[in-house]
Design goal:
The structure holds 2 protein chains of 2 kinds.
Chain A lengths: L3 E6 L2 H12 L15 E4 L4 E6 L4 H6 L5 E5 H7 L3 E6 L5 E8 L10 E5 L2 H10 L4 E5 L6 H4 L5 E6 L3 H5 L2 E10 L1 E6 H6 L1 H18 L1
Parallel strand pairs in A: 1-3, 1-4, 7-8, 7-9
Antiparallel strand pairs in A: 2-3, 4-11, 5-11, 6-9, 6-10
Chain B lengths: L2 H20 L3 E2 L5 E3 H6 L11 E3 L5 E4 L4 H7 L7 E13 L6 E13 L3 H18 L3 E7 L1 H10 L3 H12 L3 H10 L4 H12 L1 E3 H4 L10 H19 L6 E4 L10 E9 L7 E5 L1 H6 L5 E8 L4 H4 L7 E6 L6 H12 L5 E4 L8 E8 L2 E7 L2
Parallel strand pairs in B: 1-5, 7-9, 13-14, 13-15
Antiparallel strand pairs in B: 2-4, 3-4, 5-6, 6-12, 7-10, 8-9, 10-11, 11-12, 15-16
Helix pairs in contact in B: 1-4, 4-10, 6-7, 7-8
Classes of the chains: A alpha/beta, B alpha+beta.
Chain lengths: 211, 373
């Protein structure tokens, strides 16, 4: 039997997603053990789960190391992997937003300096507005950039807005709403269609029941 | 690609070329370079829009070919009632999505250009299946037709950004965002239903096609549906029915493609390895009146699939020492090679060289140090 490989993002989102897979008939009890293992297998159910860094899930799926994966829409927009986006799981909800210091005034006569982890999303957003920008790519603590005058604004994920508030920043504009998506490798979708179809149908039903 | 993999890929490619010749296709050889201008005018047709360019001695800007189809289309002439059938085996130069750098990518493919009828389309789709079969018996061809989507977009008079966004959703089987786009644009219930049917209908062509009749509504689409049925019947007659999946998520830029589009997959390769379709709009853009259909098999996607893992670098290592006369060594090596195995002579056993058998030449005699099964 072909094992179905599923990449889960490490953390709470991955755990919630696993619960949905379990309810879909693909349990793997060993995944709940508290250890540092990264791969868990249930041969009987024909499934193998692995924990990966959330931003890497799409790569695992696109390259076929995983047949299915759970990934945030932010990653899909930023990296545009060649995968099927089968379901919006409605979990891990947040938004991609522009934030700046409270007293920031946008002077359109000069290039806007944007600090972000999401260069493509930021570029596409400002290109759609015809705004000339310069991007500073940062990997973390993005909120520091405007405070230290490294950038005018930041483009980042906002969940509750607490971090922004505590750093004296305000949200200026929402670029796009983000939530977790079920993605599939395009080739796996052809060769593992029964198992993937079963999961998609069950998860869609689970989502219907919760809304 | 290493030598072994290249040989395997090359022999599969040889078989493909022989197959195309047996179906009356003739080889099309072309120059490695092409005027850059050709690609600038048709930038969106290229898989990646970056091209390696250089200036020729006469000051003309040339490019290393990133694509084969454009060159074939450019050089042909329209002849009424005639069909030009050519195949090619060429390297193209494109940016690899993974490494973000230019790579040489071997491609084998064919083009059928001219007054195309249903049989010509069937013939090319069949050859795409037979090409995949040369790679693996475990393959599928995803077949789609752009006519109903194109008709729907025209009927709804959708603007290009919305068309592109919807096409992207169809390509990703992204029903949730397609619904959101359709609702946001205020599309009627029928249109939303048709789009949903297109995204959700996938599977064995014979099972899925009847349910799609409701999507092929306008006159052009009704004709396309009839043609679809005929081609499917012919493919089934050729014993290929089980290999064809109908999947409308196979979409291509409608500025260049129309009608049938398809992608081929083999088990074990995470990407499509074959891509093809009808490209009449490209022909019109290039001032041609003929119809056209073709496909390419991407061997760069097959590198890992075609590689054969060998536990050994060489079959036999023959050890010798400084006192061994060269004539004796040569004689021993010759007789070993005559048994059909790969042999190398070394002064000392190397830990980096993996061999199946280690022999030692002592006083003109070959002795076995070890030998794996």
């Amino acid at each position: 039997m072909n094992m179905l490989n599923i990449a889960l993002p490490k953390g709470r989102l991955g755990e919630k997603a696993y619960a949905m897979f379990e309810r879909a008939g693909f349990p793997c009890p060993s995944i709940k053990e508290n250890n540092r293992k990264l791969i868990f297998e249930n041969e009987e159910a024909g499934v193998r789960y692995f924990w990966v860094k959330p931003s890497d899930v799409a790569i695992y799926v696109e390259r076929g190391a995983a047949d299915l994966g759970i990934v945030g829409k932010d990653i899909l927009l930023e990296y545009e992997p060649d995968v099927y986006e089968l379901l919006d799981l409605g979990m891990g909800k947040c938004r991609m937003a522009v934030a700046a210091k409270r007293d920031f005034r946008d002077d359109r006569r000069r290039t806007l300096i944007v600090a972000t982890k999401f260069a493509k999303i930021a570029s596409d957003f400002y290109a759609s507005q015809g705004r000339d920008i310069d991007i500073i790519h940062l990997n973390g603590s993005i909120e520091l950039a405007p405070i230290l005058s490294l950038s005018d604004v930041i483009v980042d994920i906002v969940e509750t807005g607490t971090t922004l508030k505590e750093n004296d920043l305000t949200e200026r504009e929402t670029i796009v709403s983000i939530s977790a998506r079920l993605i599939a490798n395009k080739a796996s979708y052809k060769f593992q269609s029964d198992a993937i179809g079963k999961i998609v149908a069950s998860m869609a039903k689970q989502l219907e029941e919760t809304t | 690609m290493n030598q072994t993999n290249r040989n395997r890929a090359s022999s599969v490619s040889d078989e493909m070329c022989a197959l195309y010749e047996s179906y009356g296709f003739t080889q099309y050889n072309m120059s490695k370079f092409e005027a850059y201008d050709l690609y600038v005018r048709n930038k969106d047709f290229l898989i990646s829009d970056s091209v390696i360019t250089f200036t020729d001695t006469d000051g003309k800007l040339l490019a290393l070919k990133p694509d084969v189809t454009l060159s074939i289309v450019k050089s042909g002439k329209d002849v009424p009632d005639a069909v030009q059938r050519v195949y090619y085996r060429e390297n193209v130069y494109r940016i690899s999505k993974g490494s973000h750098s230019f790579r040489e990518m071997p491609q084998t493919g064919l083009e059928c250009i001219g007054d195309l009828d249903t049989f010509c389309l069937f013939d090319v789709i069949r050859l795409s299946c037979l090409s995949l079969a040369l790679l693996s018996p475990d393959y599928v061809l995803d077949l789609s037709n752009l006519t109903p989507v194109s008709a729907l977009f025209t009927r709804l008079d959708l603007q290009k950004p919305l068309r592109d966004a919807m096409l992207k959703c169809i390509g990703e089987k992204n029903l949730h965002e397609l619904r959101a786009l359709a609702n946001g644009a205020g599309l009627d219930e029928t249109a939303v239903k048709q789009l949903e049917t297109l995204v959700t209908s996938a599977g064995r062509a014979r099972d899925v096609l009847p349910g799609l009749k409701a999507v092929f509504t306008d006159e052009e689409s009704v004709n396309a549906f009839a043609q679809f049925e005929t081609i499917l019947r012919l493919l089934e007659g050729a014993g290929l029915g089980d290999k064809i999946r109908l999947d409308f998520s196979v979409v291509s830029d409608m500025k260049y493609y129309n009608g049938f589009v398809f992608k081929g997959f083999v088990r074990g390769v995470p990407h499509s390895v074959l891509s093809g379709g009808q490209y009449d709009p490209l022909m019109r853009r290039m001032g041609r009146t003929s119809g056209a259909i073709g496909f390419a098999v991407y061997f760069d996607e097959l590198e890992r699939y075609l590689s054969e893992e060998s536990p050994y670098d060489v079959d036999t290592v023959l050890l010798y020492d400084a006192q061994t006369p060269p004539e004796t060594l040569e004689q021993a090596l010759q007789s070993l090679r005559q048994t059909g195995v790969s042999v190398t002579a070394q002064r000392a056993a190397q830990t980096t060289l993996r061999c199946r058998r280690l022999l030692k030449l002592e006083n003109g005699e070959v002795k076995t140090v070890y030998e794996h099964a």
